[in-house]
Amino acid sequence: MPRGVPKAGFRMTKNKKATLGLVNKTQELVQPESKFTINQRFQFVGDMVKMLADGDQASVIVTGPGGLGKTYNVIKSLKDSGMKDISLAEEFEIGTRINLKKSFRIIKGYSSPKGLYRLLYENKDGVLVMDDCDSVLKDAVSVSILKAALDSYDKRIISWNADIRDEDLPRCFEFTGRVIFISNMPSIAMDQAIISRSMAVDLSMTAKQKVERMRYLIAQPDFMPDYTINQKNDAVDFLETVCDQAKELTLRSLCQITKIRKNNPRGNWKDLATYVVCG
Hints:
Radius of gyration: 23 Å
Largest sheet: 6 strands, parallel
Helix content: 40-55%
Structural class: alpha/beta
Shape: elongated
């Protein structure tokens, strides 16, 4: 009898089922620890996005917990590469010519498979930044569409063979655009066919690495420029002391504590900070 196969008459209890389910789920979602620092991995995001902006890469996947600057880093890297944000197309005057190959559009929230098909068609020459659009990464039909959009063939043809009532949508088209996925999902939980077609970087962090990232950010001149470096340093020092008790440890936490530090210069600012961060 093969190993691992229960003997005849074996009856699995609910507790054993639950335990096995928990083990399997943990095995599926735990990310291996990276040998690269968190700041190196953020730099990798910039490098990958630049490759995509230059047309040398069809897709980039950025994963990791929310509230730690994934979207900001991606958008900054696109703009630094000369890309224009056309997410709010109504801001452009009628007649304005837009170079789609040097433009990007940010899409947030839910999208159905047909909605995804339309998005790809309407942006078939540009860059789509799909921010927290996990529905398209979980739906089998959407994943099939994305496989066609991100394939490595000379021509990437996307087809919709189901009924189309929209007269402005063709049944197939060539996609020459590029896609960036930003997700709180771990990459190991995503469809591996999508991962294999993309460059992926995981920004999962320990509490220590979150503090390390914060120390890097407060040294940047464009991060909370209205606050002094001493105020920001005090905020990070405080978060480092309470990181194990904090309800969440994000850039929002850092901004909140920095503001508390500025507006409560007396020695009791840490009491309010503790209440806000730890409850």
